[in-house]
Protein backbone atom coordinates (compact mmCIF):
# COMPACT_ATOMS: atom_id res chain seq x y z
CA UNK A 1 0.00 0.00 0.00
CA UNK A 2 1.55 3.30 -1.01
CA UNK A 3 -1.41 5.54 -1.68
CA UNK A 4 -1.18 8.97 -0.08
CA UNK A 5 -4.84 9.08 0.82
CA UNK A 6 -4.66 5.69 2.52
CA UNK A 7 -1.50 6.34 4.48
CA UNK A 8 -1.61 10.05 5.26
CA UNK A 9 -5.07 11.25 4.29
CA UNK A 10 -6.07 14.81 3.48
CA UNK A 11 -8.45 15.51 6.30
CA UNK A 12 -7.58 18.67 8.21
CA UNK A 13 -4.58 19.53 6.03
CA UNK A 14 -4.17 22.87 4.30
CA UNK A 15 -3.29 22.76 0.64
CA UNK A 16 0.30 23.77 1.39
CA UNK A 17 0.71 21.18 4.11
CA UNK A 18 -0.78 18.48 1.95
CA UNK A 19 1.62 19.35 -0.87
CA UNK A 20 4.56 19.28 1.53
CA UNK A 21 3.66 15.88 2.97
CA UNK A 22 2.88 14.49 -0.46
CA UNK A 23 6.37 15.36 -1.70
CA UNK A 24 7.88 13.45 1.22
CA UNK A 25 5.46 10.59 0.60
CA UNK A 26 6.57 10.39 -3.03
CA UNK A 27 10.24 10.35 -2.02
CA UNK A 28 9.61 7.53 0.46
CA UNK A 29 7.92 5.50 -2.24
CA UNK A 30 10.73 6.24 -4.68
CA UNK A 31 13.47 5.41 -2.17
CA UNK A 32 12.02 2.08 -1.10
CA UNK A 33 12.76 0.45 2.24
CA UNK A 34 16.12 0.90 3.93
CA UNK A 35 17.97 -2.40 4.25
CA UNK A 36 18.43 -4.23 7.53
CA UNK A 37 22.01 -3.96 8.67
CA UNK A 38 23.76 -7.33 9.02
CA UNK A 39 25.15 -8.01 12.52
CA UNK A 40 28.69 -7.41 11.29
CA UNK A 41 27.86 -3.78 10.52
CA UNK A 42 26.16 -2.85 13.74
CA UNK A 43 29.35 -1.31 15.09
CA UNK A 44 31.72 1.05 13.26
CA UNK A 45 34.76 -0.67 11.76
CA UNK A 46 37.20 1.83 13.26
CA UNK A 47 35.73 2.79 16.58
CA UNK A 48 38.28 1.57 19.06
CA UNK A 49 37.91 2.17 22.75
CA UNK A 50 40.91 3.83 24.35
CA UNK A 51 42.10 0.47 25.68
CA UNK A 52 42.10 -1.01 22.20
CA UNK A 53 44.15 1.70 20.53
CA UNK A 54 47.58 0.56 19.49
CA UNK A 55 50.20 2.80 21.04
CA UNK A 56 52.97 3.94 18.72
CA UNK A 57 55.31 5.89 21.00
CA UNK A 58 56.75 8.19 18.36
CA UNK A 59 53.59 8.53 16.29
CA UNK A 60 51.80 11.14 18.37
CA UNK A 61 48.85 13.28 17.36
CA UNK A 62 50.98 15.64 15.34
CA UNK A 63 51.36 12.79 12.89
CA UNK A 64 47.79 13.44 11.87
CA UNK A 65 49.18 16.32 9.82
CA UNK A 66 51.08 13.76 7.83
CA UNK A 67 48.00 11.58 7.71
CA UNK A 68 46.04 14.47 6.26
CA UNK A 69 48.72 15.19 3.65
CA UNK A 70 48.90 11.53 2.73
CA UNK A 71 45.12 11.22 2.58
CA UNK A 72 44.84 14.26 0.31
CA UNK A 73 47.57 12.83 -1.91
CA UNK A 74 45.71 9.56 -2.10
CA UNK A 75 42.45 11.27 -2.98
CA UNK A 76 44.13 13.33 -5.69
CA UNK A 77 45.72 10.21 -7.10
CA UNK A 78 42.46 8.39 -6.85
CA UNK A 79 40.29 10.93 -8.62
CA UNK A 80 42.99 11.48 -11.24
CA UNK A 81 43.03 7.79 -11.95
CA UNK A 82 39.32 7.33 -11.88
CA UNK A 83 39.01 5.58 -8.60
CA UNK A 84 39.32 6.39 -4.95
CA UNK A 85 41.15 3.56 -3.26
CA UNK A 86 42.16 0.10 -4.18
CA UNK A 87 42.26 -1.52 -7.55
CA UNK A 88 40.33 -4.54 -6.45
CA UNK A 89 42.76 -6.85 -8.16
CA UNK A 90 44.57 -7.70 -4.97
CA UNK A 91 42.14 -6.32 -2.43
CA UNK A 92 41.06 -8.75 0.25
CA UNK A 93 37.79 -8.62 2.14
CA UNK A 94 36.95 -6.41 5.13
CA UNK A 95 39.42 -5.76 7.91
CA UNK A 96 38.63 -4.62 11.45
CA UNK A 97 40.95 -1.62 11.54
CA UNK A 98 41.86 -0.19 14.93
CA UNK A 99 44.57 2.21 13.86
CA UNK A 100 45.75 3.60 10.55
CA UNK A 101 49.40 4.52 10.03
CA UNK A 102 50.05 6.61 6.91
CA UNK A 103 53.37 6.30 5.10
CA UNK A 104 54.76 8.16 2.13
CA UNK A 105 57.78 8.49 -0.12
CA UNK A 106 58.09 10.24 -3.47
CA UNK A 107 54.83 9.80 -5.37
CA UNK A 108 53.89 6.74 -3.37
CA UNK A 109 51.63 6.63 -0.32
CA UNK A 110 50.59 3.75 1.88
CA UNK A 111 48.21 3.06 4.72
CA UNK A 112 49.07 0.42 7.26
CA UNK A 113 45.90 -0.67 9.03
CA UNK A 114 46.40 -2.46 12.32
CA UNK A 115 43.73 -4.59 13.98
CA UNK A 116 43.46 -5.64 17.63
CA UNK A 117 45.97 -8.15 18.90
CA UNK A 118 44.62 -11.67 18.55
CA UNK A 119 44.50 -14.28 21.31
CA UNK A 120 47.86 -15.69 20.27
CA UNK A 121 49.56 -12.30 20.58
CA UNK A 122 49.75 -11.40 16.88
CA UNK A 123 48.88 -8.00 15.43
CA UNK A 124 47.01 -8.54 12.16
CA UNK A 125 47.88 -5.79 9.70
CA UNK A 126 46.75 -4.78 6.25
CA UNK A 127 49.11 -2.73 4.11
CA UNK A 128 47.71 -0.79 1.16
CA UNK A 129 50.38 0.73 -1.06
CA UNK A 130 49.66 3.14 -3.89
CA UNK A 131 51.99 4.11 -6.72
CA UNK A 132 54.97 1.98 -5.79
CA UNK A 133 56.76 0.95 -9.00
CA UNK A 134 56.43 -2.67 -10.04
CA UNK A 135 59.60 -4.69 -9.60
CA UNK A 136 61.97 -4.77 -12.56
CA UNK A 137 63.35 -8.12 -11.45
CA UNK A 138 61.11 -11.17 -11.11
CA UNK A 139 62.71 -12.03 -7.78
CA UNK A 140 62.74 -8.53 -6.35
CA UNK A 141 60.19 -7.50 -3.73
CA UNK A 142 59.36 -4.95 -1.06
CA UNK A 143 59.65 -5.44 2.68
CA UNK A 144 57.88 -3.76 5.61
CA UNK A 145 59.95 -3.07 8.72
CA UNK A 146 59.45 -1.67 12.18
CA UNK A 147 62.17 0.87 12.88
CA UNK A 148 64.16 1.86 15.91
CA UNK A 149 66.00 5.18 15.82
CA UNK A 150 65.08 5.52 12.18
CA UNK A 151 66.66 2.24 11.09
CA UNK A 152 64.91 -0.98 10.02
CA UNK A 153 64.93 -3.22 13.09
CA UNK A 154 62.29 -5.94 12.79
CA UNK A 155 60.98 -7.43 9.53
CA UNK A 156 57.19 -7.48 9.21
CA UNK A 157 56.70 -9.23 5.90
CA UNK A 158 57.48 -9.06 2.20
CA UNK A 159 55.31 -8.42 -0.82
CA UNK A 160 55.36 -7.64 -4.52
CA UNK A 161 53.24 -5.13 -6.42
CA UNK A 162 51.67 -5.62 -9.82
CA UNK A 163 49.12 -2.83 -9.90
CA UNK A 164 48.81 0.81 -9.00
CA UNK A 165 47.27 -0.22 -5.69
CA UNK A 166 48.24 -3.37 -3.89
CA UNK A 167 46.85 -4.57 -0.57
CA UNK A 168 48.45 -7.33 1.45
CA UNK A 169 47.73 -8.89 4.83
CA UNK A 170 50.56 -9.33 7.30
CA UNK A 171 50.89 -10.26 10.95
CA UNK A 172 53.60 -9.65 13.54
CA UNK A 173 53.98 -10.62 17.21
CA UNK A 174 56.20 -7.68 18.24
CA UNK A 175 55.66 -5.30 21.12
CA UNK A 176 55.17 -2.00 19.26
CA UNK A 177 56.35 0.04 22.25
CA UNK A 178 59.88 -1.08 21.49
CA UNK A 179 59.82 0.61 18.11
CA UNK A 180 59.20 4.09 16.82
CA UNK A 181 58.14 3.92 13.18
CA UNK A 182 57.70 1.92 10.01
CA UNK A 183 59.41 1.82 6.65
CA UNK A 184 59.07 -0.09 3.42
CA UNK A 185 62.29 -1.02 1.67
CA UNK A 186 63.04 -2.13 -1.87
CA UNK A 187 64.73 -5.53 -1.84
CA UNK A 188 66.77 -7.09 -4.59
CA UNK A 189 66.74 -10.78 -5.36
CA UNK A 190 69.80 -11.53 -3.24
CA UNK A 191 69.51 -8.88 -0.52
CA UNK A 192 70.01 -10.18 3.00
CA UNK A 193 69.95 -6.76 4.65
CA UNK A 194 67.32 -4.03 4.48
CA UNK A 195 67.42 -2.26 1.12
CA UNK A 196 66.77 1.42 0.33
CA UNK A 197 63.76 2.97 2.05
CA UNK A 198 60.91 3.80 -0.34
CA UNK A 199 58.15 4.61 2.17
CA UNK A 200 58.32 5.81 5.75
CA UNK A 201 56.08 7.08 8.53
CA UNK B 1 14.65 24.12 15.36
CA UNK B 2 17.09 21.28 14.77
CA UNK B 3 20.29 21.38 16.76
CA UNK B 4 21.88 18.28 15.31
CA UNK B 5 25.57 18.43 14.48
CA UNK B 6 25.93 18.69 10.73
CA UNK B 7 27.55 15.98 8.66
CA UNK B 8 30.23 18.46 7.60
CA UNK B 9 31.17 19.22 11.21
CA UNK B 10 31.40 15.51 11.99
CA UNK B 11 33.66 14.92 8.98
CA UNK B 12 35.93 17.75 10.06
CA UNK B 13 36.11 16.37 13.59
CA UNK B 14 36.81 12.87 12.27
CA UNK B 15 39.70 14.37 10.29
CA UNK B 16 41.33 15.33 13.59
CA UNK B 17 41.06 11.76 14.87
CA UNK B 18 37.81 12.22 16.81
CA UNK B 19 36.43 8.69 17.09
CA UNK B 20 33.07 9.73 18.52
CA UNK B 21 32.42 11.97 15.50
CA UNK B 22 33.32 9.08 13.23
CA UNK B 23 30.94 6.80 15.10
CA UNK B 24 28.16 9.36 14.76
CA UNK B 25 28.76 9.45 11.02
CA UNK B 26 28.69 5.68 10.95
CA UNK B 27 25.36 5.47 12.73
CA UNK B 28 23.90 8.06 10.39
CA UNK B 29 25.20 6.54 7.19
CA UNK B 30 25.81 2.81 7.65
CA UNK B 31 22.32 1.96 6.42
CA UNK B 32 22.33 4.35 3.44
CA UNK B 33 25.78 3.09 2.39
CA UNK B 34 24.67 -0.51 2.77
CA UNK B 35 21.53 0.23 0.75
CA UNK B 36 23.53 1.90 -1.99
CA UNK B 37 25.98 -1.01 -2.06
CA UNK B 38 23.17 -3.56 -2.20
CA UNK B 39 21.58 -1.76 -5.14
CA UNK B 40 24.84 -1.66 -7.04
CA UNK B 41 26.37 -5.02 -6.09
CA UNK B 42 23.27 -7.13 -5.49
CA UNK B 43 25.02 -9.28 -2.93
CA UNK B 44 24.86 -8.79 0.83
CA UNK B 45 28.35 -10.14 1.50
CA UNK B 46 30.01 -7.88 -1.03
CA UNK B 47 27.85 -4.98 0.07
CA UNK B 48 29.01 -5.54 3.63
CA UNK B 49 32.63 -5.41 2.51
CA UNK B 50 31.88 -2.24 0.56
CA UNK B 51 30.50 -0.59 3.69
CA UNK B 52 33.68 -1.43 5.59
CA UNK B 53 35.79 -0.02 2.79
CA UNK B 54 33.66 3.09 2.51
CA UNK B 55 34.09 3.97 6.15
CA UNK B 56 37.79 3.19 6.06
CA UNK B 57 37.99 5.62 3.13
CA UNK B 58 35.98 8.23 5.03
CA UNK B 59 38.30 7.91 8.00
CA UNK B 60 41.39 8.22 5.83
CA UNK B 61 40.08 10.96 3.57
CA UNK B 62 38.16 13.14 6.01
CA UNK B 63 40.90 15.77 5.91
CA UNK B 64 40.21 16.30 2.21
CA UNK B 65 36.68 17.48 2.89
CA UNK B 66 36.27 21.22 2.27
CA UNK B 67 33.13 22.69 3.86
CA UNK B 68 33.26 25.75 1.61
CA UNK B 69 32.63 23.48 -1.36
CA UNK B 70 29.38 22.11 -0.01
CA UNK B 71 27.67 20.11 2.73
CA UNK B 72 28.90 16.76 3.93
CA UNK B 73 26.22 14.46 2.48
CA UNK B 74 27.30 14.76 -1.18
CA UNK B 75 30.95 14.29 -0.20
CA UNK B 76 30.07 11.15 1.76
CA UNK B 77 27.96 9.94 -1.16
CA UNK B 78 30.90 10.42 -3.54
CA UNK B 79 33.26 8.50 -1.26
CA UNK B 80 30.72 5.68 -0.87
CA UNK B 81 29.96 5.53 -4.57
CA UNK B 82 33.66 5.32 -5.43
CA UNK B 83 34.28 2.54 -2.92
CA UNK B 84 31.26 0.61 -4.19
CA UNK B 85 32.08 1.13 -7.86
CA UNK B 86 35.62 0.05 -7.13
CA UNK B 87 34.36 -3.17 -5.59
CA UNK B 88 31.93 -3.73 -8.45
CA UNK B 89 34.70 -3.18 -10.97
CA UNK B 90 36.79 -5.89 -9.37
CA UNK B 91 34.18 -8.47 -10.36
CA UNK B 92 33.05 -7.07 -13.70
CA UNK B 93 33.27 -9.58 -16.48
CA UNK B 94 33.02 -8.89 -20.19
CA UNK B 95 29.84 -10.51 -21.55
CA UNK B 96 30.43 -13.18 -24.16
CA UNK B 97 27.68 -11.86 -26.45
CA UNK B 98 26.42 -8.37 -27.03
CA UNK B 99 22.66 -8.30 -26.42
CA UNK B 100 20.50 -7.45 -29.43
CA UNK B 101 18.08 -5.27 -27.51
CA UNK B 102 18.55 -2.49 -25.05
CA UNK B 103 18.15 -3.58 -21.46
CA UNK B 104 14.94 -2.61 -19.72
CA UNK B 105 16.90 -1.68 -16.60
CA UNK B 106 17.23 1.99 -15.72
CA UNK B 107 20.22 3.69 -17.34
CA UNK B 108 23.22 4.89 -15.36
CA UNK B 109 21.83 8.39 -14.83
CA UNK B 110 18.49 7.03 -13.62
CA UNK B 111 20.24 4.63 -11.30
CA UNK B 112 22.39 7.46 -9.96
CA UNK B 113 19.31 9.60 -9.36
CA UNK B 114 17.50 6.77 -7.60
CA UNK B 115 20.59 6.01 -5.57
CA UNK B 116 20.92 9.61 -4.44
CA UNK B 117 17.24 9.88 -3.46
CA UNK B 118 17.39 6.63 -1.49
CA UNK B 119 20.62 7.79 0.13
CA UNK B 120 19.09 11.05 1.35
CA UNK B 121 15.79 9.51 2.43
CA UNK B 122 17.37 6.61 4.31
CA UNK B 123 19.77 9.00 5.97
CA UNK B 124 16.86 11.24 7.02
CA UNK B 125 14.94 8.26 8.44
CA UNK B 126 17.82 7.70 10.86
CA UNK B 127 16.94 10.98 12.55
CA UNK B 128 13.35 10.04 13.34
CA UNK B 129 12.34 8.67 16.72
CA UNK B 130 12.04 4.88 16.61
CA UNK B 131 8.27 4.92 17.17
CA UNK B 132 7.73 7.16 14.13
CA UNK B 133 10.19 5.25 11.97
CA UNK B 134 8.42 1.95 12.68
CA UNK B 135 5.02 3.38 11.77
CA UNK B 136 6.39 4.53 8.40
CA UNK B 137 8.10 1.20 7.77
CA UNK B 138 4.93 -0.73 8.47
CA UNK B 139 2.74 1.60 6.43
CA UNK B 140 5.01 1.99 3.41
CA UNK B 141 6.95 -1.23 3.11
CA UNK B 142 5.08 -3.96 4.97
CA UNK B 143 1.82 -3.70 3.07
CA UNK B 144 -0.27 -3.07 6.18
CA UNK B 145 -3.24 -0.72 6.23
CA UNK B 146 -3.33 1.99 8.89
CA UNK B 147 -5.82 -0.11 10.86
CA UNK B 148 -3.53 -3.12 10.66
CA UNK B 149 -0.58 -1.00 11.76
CA UNK B 150 -2.61 0.14 14.77
CA UNK B 151 -3.52 -3.43 15.61
CA UNK B 152 0.05 -4.66 15.10
CA UNK B 153 1.47 -2.00 17.42
CA UNK B 154 -1.47 -2.12 19.84
CA UNK B 155 -2.02 1.62 19.62
CA UNK B 156 -5.09 3.64 18.58
CA UNK B 157 -5.64 4.33 14.88
CA UNK B 158 -5.56 8.07 15.62
CA UNK B 159 -2.08 7.69 17.09
CA UNK B 160 -0.88 5.91 13.95
CA UNK B 161 -2.17 8.77 11.81
CA UNK B 162 -0.68 11.40 14.09
CA UNK B 163 2.71 9.69 14.11
CA UNK B 164 2.65 9.23 10.34
CA UNK B 165 2.01 12.92 9.70
CA UNK B 166 4.51 14.00 12.33
CA UNK B 167 7.15 11.73 10.79
CA UNK B 168 6.52 13.06 7.28
CA UNK B 169 6.68 16.64 8.55
CA UNK B 170 10.03 15.96 10.22
CA UNK B 171 11.37 14.28 7.10
CA UNK B 172 10.29 17.34 5.14
CA UNK B 173 12.34 19.56 7.45
CA UNK B 174 15.35 17.25 7.33
CA UNK B 175 15.31 16.79 3.57
CA UNK B 176 14.87 20.49 2.90
CA UNK B 177 16.37 21.22 -0.51
CA UNK B 178 15.63 17.71 -1.70
CA UNK B 179 11.99 18.65 -1.90
CA UNK B 180 12.41 21.76 -4.00
Structural description of this entry:
The complex is a heterodimer of chains A (201) and B (180). Chain A is built from three helices and eight strands, in the order αααββββββββ. Chain A is of the alpha+beta class and 201 residues long. Chain A has two domains: 1-34; 50-200, Immunoglobulin-like. In chain A, the strands form two sheets. In chain A, strands 1-2-3-6 form a four-stranded antiparallel beta sheet, covered by helices on one side. The model of chain A is unreliable at 47-65 and 73-93 (pLDDT under 50). Chain B has 180 residues and is mainly α. Chain B folds into two domains: 1-91 and 108-127, Orthogonal Bundle (Rna Polymerase Sigma Factor, Chain: A), CATH 1.10.1740; 128-180, Winged helix-like DNA-binding domain superfamily/Winged helix DNA-binding domain (Arc Repressor Mutant, subunit A). Chain B has helices spanning 7-15, 19-41, 44-61, 72-89, 108-125, 130-141, 146-153, 157-175. In chain B, helix 3 (44-61) packs across helix 4 (72-89). Chain B starts with 6 loop residues before the first helix and ends in a 5-residue tail after the last helix. The interface between A and B is large, with 54 and 64 residues.
| SS-based class of chain A | alpha+beta
Q: Which segments of chain B are poorly predicted (pLDDT under 50) over 5 or more consecutive residues?
A: 92-104
The coarse overall form of chain A would be elongated
Mean pLDDT value of chain A: 75
Number of strands of chain B: 0
Helix content of chain B: 55-70%
Sheet of most strands of chain B:
none
Shape of chain B: globular
Task: Kindly identify the CATH topology of the largest domain in chain A.
Answer: Immunoglobulin-like
What is the ordering of alpha helices and beta strands of chain A?
A: HHHEEEEEEEE
Largest interface: A-B, 54 and 64 residues
Major beta sheet of chain A, specifics? 4 strands, antiparallel
Measured distance between first and last alpha carbons of chain B: 20 Å
What is the residue-averaged pLDDT of chain B? 81
Rg of chain A, alpha carbons: 24 Å
Number of domain units of chain A: 2
Number of contiguous helices of chain B: 8
**What's the CATH first level of the largest domain in chain A?**
Mainly Beta
Helix content of chain A: 10-25%
Amino acid sequence: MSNFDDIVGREGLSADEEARLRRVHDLLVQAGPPPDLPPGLERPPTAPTEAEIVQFPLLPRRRWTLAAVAAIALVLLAFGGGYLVGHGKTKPTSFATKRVVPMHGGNAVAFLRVASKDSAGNWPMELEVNNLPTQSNRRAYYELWLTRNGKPAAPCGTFRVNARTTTVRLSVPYDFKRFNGWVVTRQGANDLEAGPVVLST
Amino acid sequence: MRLVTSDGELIQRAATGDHSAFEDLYHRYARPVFGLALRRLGDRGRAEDAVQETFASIWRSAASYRPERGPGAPWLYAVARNAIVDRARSRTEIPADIPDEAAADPGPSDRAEQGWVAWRVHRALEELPEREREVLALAYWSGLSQSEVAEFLSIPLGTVKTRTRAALAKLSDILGDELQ
